[in-house]
Input
Amino acid sequence: MFYYISGELVHKTDTFAVIDAGGVGYRIYSTLTSLSALGEVGSQAKLYTYMNLKTTSDICVLYGFATLEELHMFEMILGVSGVGAKTAASLLSNVSPSKFSLCVVTGDAKYIASHTPGLGPKGAQRIILELKDKFKGVELDDIGKEDLFVPEVDDSNEAVSALVVLGYSPQEAKKALKGAEGSLEEKIKQGLKNLMRG
Output
Protein backbone atom coordinates (compact mmCIF):
# COMPACT_ATOMS: atom_id res chain seq x y z
CA MET A 1 0.00 0.00 0.00
CA PHE A 2 2.72 2.49 1.03
CA TYR A 3 6.23 2.21 -0.45
CA TYR A 4 7.73 4.46 2.20
CA ILE A 5 6.64 7.10 4.70
CA SER A 6 8.68 10.25 5.15
CA GLY A 7 8.17 13.12 7.57
CA GLU A 8 8.97 14.41 11.05
CA LEU A 9 9.84 11.89 13.73
CA VAL A 10 7.53 12.81 16.62
CA HIS A 11 7.90 9.79 18.91
CA LYS A 12 10.17 6.76 19.24
CA THR A 13 10.23 3.69 21.51
CA ASP A 14 12.16 0.39 21.47
CA THR A 15 9.57 -1.19 19.16
CA PHE A 16 7.98 1.56 17.05
CA ALA A 17 8.27 5.12 15.76
CA VAL A 18 5.63 7.72 14.97
CA ILE A 19 6.23 9.75 11.80
CA ASP A 20 4.10 12.81 11.05
CA ALA A 21 3.55 12.86 7.28
CA GLY A 22 1.17 15.58 6.05
CA GLY A 23 -0.52 15.98 9.42
CA VAL A 24 -1.10 12.24 9.92
CA GLY A 25 0.89 10.39 12.60
CA TYR A 26 1.84 6.91 11.39
CA ARG A 27 2.78 4.36 14.06
CA ILE A 28 5.39 2.17 12.40
CA TYR A 29 6.82 -0.91 14.12
CA SER A 30 10.45 -1.66 13.32
CA THR A 31 13.75 -3.25 14.35
CA LEU A 32 16.25 -1.81 16.81
CA THR A 33 18.65 -1.28 13.89
CA SER A 34 16.22 0.87 11.88
CA LEU A 35 14.91 2.73 14.93
CA SER A 36 18.43 3.73 16.00
CA ALA A 37 19.14 4.91 12.43
CA LEU A 38 16.21 7.35 12.57
CA GLY A 39 17.96 9.85 14.80
CA GLU A 40 16.37 12.11 17.41
CA VAL A 41 12.73 13.15 17.79
CA GLY A 42 12.13 16.29 15.72
CA SER A 43 14.39 15.22 12.85
CA GLN A 44 13.25 14.17 9.37
CA ALA A 45 12.76 10.43 9.03
CA LYS A 46 12.00 7.92 6.27
CA LEU A 47 11.03 4.26 6.53
CA TYR A 48 10.34 1.74 3.75
CA THR A 49 7.10 0.09 4.78
CA TYR A 50 5.33 -3.25 4.86
CA MET A 51 1.61 -3.51 5.67
CA ASN A 52 0.90 -6.61 7.75
CA LEU A 53 -2.76 -7.64 7.87
CA LYS A 54 -3.70 -10.29 10.41
CA THR A 55 -6.59 -12.06 8.69
CA THR A 56 -7.74 -13.79 11.87
CA SER A 57 -8.36 -10.52 13.72
CA ASP A 58 -8.53 -7.95 10.88
CA ILE A 59 -5.79 -5.94 12.59
CA CYS A 60 -3.56 -3.92 10.29
CA VAL A 61 0.00 -3.19 11.48
CA LEU A 62 2.58 -1.10 9.64
CA TYR A 63 6.25 -2.14 9.72
CA GLY A 64 9.06 0.06 8.45
CA PHE A 65 12.79 -0.23 7.75
CA ALA A 66 15.62 2.23 7.22
CA THR A 67 16.98 0.28 4.23
CA LEU A 68 15.44 -1.73 1.39
CA GLU A 69 17.87 -4.56 2.22
CA GLU A 70 16.32 -4.95 5.67
CA LEU A 71 12.78 -4.70 4.25
CA HIS A 72 13.49 -7.45 1.70
CA MET A 73 15.05 -9.65 4.40
CA PHE A 74 11.95 -9.08 6.59
CA GLU A 75 9.65 -10.10 3.72
CA MET A 76 11.70 -13.26 3.09
CA ILE A 77 11.56 -14.30 6.76
CA LEU A 78 7.84 -13.52 6.87
CA GLY A 79 7.35 -15.89 3.93
CA VAL A 80 8.45 -18.83 6.09
CA SER A 81 5.46 -20.84 7.33
CA GLY A 82 4.70 -20.27 11.00
CA VAL A 83 6.83 -17.11 11.33
CA GLY A 84 4.94 -13.91 12.14
CA ALA A 85 5.89 -10.27 11.65
CA LYS A 86 6.77 -9.80 15.33
CA THR A 87 9.24 -12.71 15.24
CA ALA A 88 10.73 -11.53 11.92
CA ALA A 89 11.29 -8.02 13.36
CA SER A 90 12.77 -9.52 16.55
CA LEU A 91 15.19 -11.63 14.49
CA LEU A 92 16.39 -8.62 12.49
CA SER A 93 16.71 -6.57 15.69
CA ASN A 94 19.25 -9.06 17.02
CA VAL A 95 20.94 -10.50 13.92
CA SER A 96 22.38 -8.31 11.14
CA PRO A 97 21.26 -9.11 7.55
CA SER A 98 24.79 -10.24 6.63
CA LYS A 99 25.06 -12.49 9.70
CA PHE A 100 21.60 -13.89 8.98
CA SER A 101 22.67 -14.68 5.39
CA LEU A 102 25.75 -16.48 6.70
CA CYS A 103 23.63 -18.47 9.19
CA VAL A 104 21.24 -19.60 6.44
CA VAL A 105 24.09 -20.54 4.07
CA THR A 106 25.94 -22.50 6.77
CA GLY A 107 22.84 -23.97 8.46
CA ASP A 108 23.55 -22.31 11.81
CA ALA A 109 20.07 -22.62 13.37
CA LYS A 110 21.55 -22.50 16.88
CA TYR A 111 22.80 -18.92 16.45
CA ILE A 112 19.48 -17.69 15.03
CA ALA A 113 17.45 -19.36 17.80
CA SER A 114 19.70 -18.12 20.61
CA HIS A 115 19.59 -14.52 19.34
CA THR A 116 15.86 -14.29 18.60
CA PRO A 117 13.48 -14.05 21.58
CA GLY A 118 10.32 -16.08 20.92
CA LEU A 119 11.89 -18.30 18.26
CA GLY A 120 12.82 -21.85 19.23
CA PRO A 121 15.31 -24.24 17.58
CA LYS A 122 12.59 -25.83 15.41
CA GLY A 123 11.49 -22.43 14.11
CA ALA A 124 15.09 -21.48 13.32
CA GLN A 125 15.62 -24.78 11.46
CA ARG A 126 12.42 -24.20 9.46
CA ILE A 127 13.66 -20.71 8.46
CA ILE A 128 16.94 -22.19 7.21
CA LEU A 129 15.23 -25.06 5.35
CA GLU A 130 12.76 -22.78 3.58
CA LEU A 131 15.25 -20.00 2.75
CA LYS A 132 18.40 -21.97 1.89
CA ASP A 133 17.58 -22.12 -1.84
CA LYS A 134 17.01 -18.35 -1.97
CA PHE A 135 20.52 -17.76 -0.63
CA LYS A 136 22.30 -20.12 -3.04
CA GLY A 137 23.86 -17.34 -5.07
CA VAL A 138 24.42 -14.97 -2.14
CA GLU A 139 27.48 -12.76 -2.32
CA LEU A 140 29.65 -13.22 0.74
CA ASP A 141 31.90 -10.26 -0.05
CA ASP A 142 29.73 -7.91 2.01
CA ILE A 143 29.93 -10.07 5.12
CA GLY A 144 32.21 -8.31 7.59
CA LYS A 145 34.94 -9.81 9.74
CA GLU A 146 32.72 -9.51 12.82
CA ASP A 147 30.23 -11.95 11.23
CA LEU A 148 32.83 -14.67 10.71
CA PHE A 149 33.69 -16.60 13.86
CA VAL A 150 37.31 -17.67 13.67
CA PRO A 151 38.63 -19.94 16.43
CA GLU A 152 42.15 -19.54 17.76
CA VAL A 153 44.09 -22.48 16.40
CA ASP A 154 47.24 -23.28 14.50
CA ASP A 155 47.87 -20.79 11.67
CA SER A 156 47.91 -23.44 8.94
CA ASN A 157 44.56 -24.89 10.01
CA GLU A 158 42.59 -21.74 10.89
CA ALA A 159 40.48 -21.57 7.72
CA VAL A 160 39.72 -25.31 7.85
CA SER A 161 38.79 -25.07 11.55
CA ALA A 162 36.53 -22.08 10.89
CA LEU A 163 34.59 -24.02 8.23
CA VAL A 164 34.37 -27.05 10.55
CA VAL A 165 32.91 -24.79 13.25
CA LEU A 166 30.33 -23.68 10.65
CA GLY A 167 29.21 -27.31 10.25
CA TYR A 168 31.30 -28.75 7.41
CA SER A 169 33.43 -31.87 7.64
CA PRO A 170 37.25 -31.46 7.64
CA GLN A 171 37.37 -33.19 4.23
CA GLU A 172 34.78 -30.79 2.74
CA ALA A 173 36.59 -27.81 4.24
CA LYS A 174 40.01 -28.82 2.91
CA LYS A 175 38.60 -29.47 -0.57
CA ALA A 176 36.75 -26.12 -0.61
CA LEU A 177 39.87 -24.20 0.46
CA LYS A 178 42.15 -25.59 -2.27
CA GLY A 179 43.69 -22.64 -4.08
CA ALA A 180 42.12 -20.05 -1.73
CA GLU A 181 44.41 -17.07 -1.20
CA GLY A 182 44.53 -13.81 0.73
CA SER A 183 43.71 -13.02 4.35
CA LEU A 184 42.05 -15.56 6.64
CA GLU A 185 38.62 -13.93 6.14
CA GLU A 186 39.07 -13.97 2.35
CA LYS A 187 40.00 -17.67 2.44
CA ILE A 188 36.91 -18.50 4.52
CA LYS A 189 34.65 -16.54 2.15
CA GLN A 190 36.20 -18.30 -0.87
CA GLY A 191 35.75 -21.67 0.84
CA LEU A 192 32.08 -20.91 1.57
CA LYS A 193 31.52 -19.87 -2.05
CA ASN A 194 33.05 -23.16 -3.26
CA LEU A 195 30.88 -25.16 -0.83
CA MET A 196 27.74 -23.39 -2.05
CA ARG A 197 28.59 -24.22 -5.64
CA GLY A 198 28.80 -27.86 -4.58
Confidence is low (pLDDT under 50) at residues 145-156.
